[in-house]
Design goal:
The chain is of the alpha+beta class and about 375 residues long. It has 11 helices and 17 strands. It has helices at about 35-45, 50-60, 115-120, 140-145, 175, 195-210, 215-220, 270-285, 305-320, 330-340, 365-375; strands spanning about 5-10, 15-20, 25-30, 65, 75, 90-95, 105-110, 130-135, 155-160, 185-190, 225-235, 250-255, 265, 290-295, 320-325, 350-355, 365. The longest helix has 15 residues, at about 270-285. The protein is globular, with a radius of gyration of 22 Å.
Length: about 375
Amino acid sequence: MLTDVRIENYRGFQRFELQGLTKVNLIVGKNNCGKSALLEGIELLASGGDPRILVRVASRRGEVVPNSRDESVSHSMSHFFHGHEIEPGSYFALRCENGMAPVKVWVDPVEGDEGQPALFEDLGLGHPGYLLQIEGQHSTSKAESSKSGPSKSVPPLMVSADGVLLIDRRFPPWRYFGDTRPPGPPLVFIEPDSLGTESLGGMWNKVLQDKREGEIRKAMQILEPKLEDIVFQTGEPGYWRPSGRSYGARSGILASFTGDKRRVPLGSLGDGMRRMLALSVSLTNAQGGYLLHDEIDTGFHYSIMAKMWELVVRTAIVSGTQVFATTHSADCVRGLGVLCHQFPELRDAVSAHKIDQSLDRSIPFTGAEVLNAVEQNIEIR
């Protein structure tokens, strides 16, 4: 379990430290103070420096550049660095004190014809400017990365002078990112707009393999006590959308209820049900690892916040999962305080952390302090 996280030159933070971490951590603060950036930094640190995390984060944030030759996009790496620019000597670092290997990302200028500049220009990818180096649990040296065949480590990546990732799409992805996900604990990231049906369906398969669908049903019953089951549709061959594209596997999610023989689409029941499904399935898939949930309160009515937190905290304790969540909602903080009031035995497992970019470290609140703040109507966001 992470007990603290220190970052340097990462996005909006020149230096910052997150202290006093517990099993379940709620990160609070104003808009644009860096809450989501902290989640992304923890995701990269916990992955051991997996470069696919950088690509995934850039995609989530829309930090992409359209390719001039086709309809594809290239991902910009410059925004990960403090100041949104890359220059010789640029780097950012993520580390902790619990034995996990630190992650450092930096750039080395490309020398001479290194990186075959004419090839990249012919492909409309731009002129190579830097090698993006990643040092972490799964890093490899430049010499090792030049060997032929797939690599399970992290080779240097080529970027343009303005930090755009240069990837020749004629080659398989393992040439750049390795052939498999680096070994390590499970890592699940939930965005504010929740998980898509396909992503949920993939994680649902894990739920079925572990025979834990009963736990999911119990979690969903927090919102709808009459819920009987949840099923994922596989789709039917030859069934087409009006656009002409087929509904693929896991094309829909259906729910059934006590006293009703029909199953109805989950989407017709409101966003709260889908959010609870995403949360409960993600907790199950993150067992023994990390769940990172941006804006955890989205889609939930204030009246069930305490129940939502009870689900998260109890599941995290039993499954050995560390949870990091963000919010700027007073109702979400209040719900955590209500949980600490109702279940004193859970207080030590939770904490809140106030973020402000004018400070070089977070302001931590224990579960007992969160309860006191809520009871005294003290603002901690």
